[in-house]
Amino acid sequence: HIDYEGYSVLPMAIRQDTIIAIHKHEAGQTTKVLRISNVNPKYDTCTYPADPDQ
């Protein structure tokens, strides 16, 4: 196997995964948001507006 720079490489599998959870918007709740979290507590949770018209 040769990479795009022309060097030999040793391909190997790296264990990675993505877990996605979806929560239904509650009745009466006016603000829709996208909240992104990591299972590792060293990373802060990020919250963004989820406006379907944008």
TrEMBL record:
Superkingdom of the organism of origin: Eukaryota
UniProt domain Galactokinase N-terminal: residue ranges: 1-23
GO molecular function: ATP binding
GO biological process, one term: carbohydrate metabolic process
Alphabetical UniProt keywords: ATP-binding, Nucleotide-binding
Keyword Nucleotide-binding appears in the UniProt entry: yes
UniProt protein name: Galactokinase N-terminal domain-containing protein
Taxonomic path: Eukaryota, Viridiplantae, Streptophyta, Embryophyta, Tracheophyta
